[in-house]
């Protein structure tokens, strides 16, 4: 009997570190509820990224995030002054993951402009579809409920990353009149929308990216 009670106590402790997040989604969280240091901040970021991806920003509460991270709700404010500030941090981390993946791909890419562009698109798709929840938080449309200050910060992060592609697209040897801004917007629209229909087991993210680049190039070159 004593052994059974001890087993049940351990199970309850483990279950208390799992959050149902209000929609049946269970997010594994570390034990402990103290404020902690950098590792606890990362716990919060990861929990928030998972919940923002699954429930949306508006559908995720501070209490949801705290519960998923194994913290008391008030402890979040030791690390972030608001839920908006937490979103900005998650978004920034996602952008940095994209940037790191693309820069690594370009460092290995040949000099040919189209191959460099293709390599960057492949890296973007792989980071989006096989990376983490952080990168998926970068792609949804910004909510109108966010403050102008927050939207400005997030757009600045995104624009800094997209500057890499502006340079790559600018170097493409295309004939005729091509609006390179529209080219870039259509590219990101196509690549990022894949999170809504992509399923593992079919074409890989890199293969999908190559198809996109092929279709874009064919449309330009005729």
Task: Give the tags.
single chain; 222 residues; mainly alpha; Arc Repressor Mutant, subunit A; Tetracycline Repressor, domain 2; 2 domains; two-stranded antiparallel ribbon; 10 helices; 2 strands; elongated; disordered N terminus; transcription; transcription cis-regulatory region binding; Tet_transcr_reg_TetR-rel_C_sf; transcription regulation
Describe the structure.
- The chain has a two-stranded antiparallel sheet.
- The N and C termini lie far apart (78 Å).
- It contains 10 helices and 2 strands.
- By secondary structure, it is an all-alpha fold.
- The protein has 2 domains: 38-81, Orthogonal Bundle (Arc Repressor Mutant, subunit A), CATH 1.10.10; 87-221, Tetracycline Repressor, domain 2 (Orthogonal Bundle).
Order of adjacent strands in the largest pleated sheet = 1-2
Uncertain segments are 1-35
Which radius of gyration do the C-alpha atoms yield? 21 Å
Which geometry do the CA atoms define? elongated
Q: Supply the number of structural domains.
A: 2
Q: What is CATH's topology name of the largest domain?
A: Tetracycline Repressor, domain 2
Looking at how many chains there are and whether they match, the oligomeric state comes to single chain
Strand composition percent: under 5%
Mean pLDDT: 82
**What count of helical segments does DSSP give?**
10
Q: How would you spell out the order of helices and strands?
A: HEEHHHHHHHHH
The counted number of beta strands is: 2
Describe the main β-sheet briefly. Answer: 2 strands, antiparallel
| Helical percentage | 55-70%
Straight-line distance between termini:
78 Å
Could you name the CATH class of the largest domain?
A: Mainly Alpha
The CATH superfamily of the largest domain bears the name Tetracycline Repressor, domain 2
């Amino acid at each position: 009997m004593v052994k059974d009670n001890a087993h049940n106590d351990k199970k309850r402790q483990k279950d208390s570190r799992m959050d149902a997040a209000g929609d049946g989604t269970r997010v594994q969280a570390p034990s402990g509820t103290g404020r902690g240091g950098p590792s606890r901040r990362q716990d919060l970021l990861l929990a928030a990224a998972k919940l923002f991806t699954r429930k949306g920003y508006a559908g995720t509460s501070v209490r949801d995030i705290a519960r998923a991270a194994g913290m008391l709700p008030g402890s979040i404010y030791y690390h972030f002054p608001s839920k908006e500030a937490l979103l900005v941090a998650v978004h920034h981390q996602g952008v940095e993951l994209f940037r790191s993946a693309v820069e690594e791909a370009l460092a290995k890419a040949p000099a040919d402009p189209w191959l460099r562009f293709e390599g960057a698109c492949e890296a973007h798709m792989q980071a989006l579809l096989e990376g983490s929840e952080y990168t998926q938080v970068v792609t949804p449309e910004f909510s109108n409920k966010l403050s102008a200050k927050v939207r400005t910060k997030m757009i600045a992060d995104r624009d800094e990353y997209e500057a890499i592609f502006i340079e790559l697209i600018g170097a493409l040897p295309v004939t005729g009149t091509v609006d390179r801004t529209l080219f870039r917007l259509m590219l990101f629209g196509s690549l990022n929308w894949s999170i809504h229909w992509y399923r593992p087991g079919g074409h890989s993210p890199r293969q999908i990216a190559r198809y996109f680049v092929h279709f874009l190039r064919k449309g330009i070159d005729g």
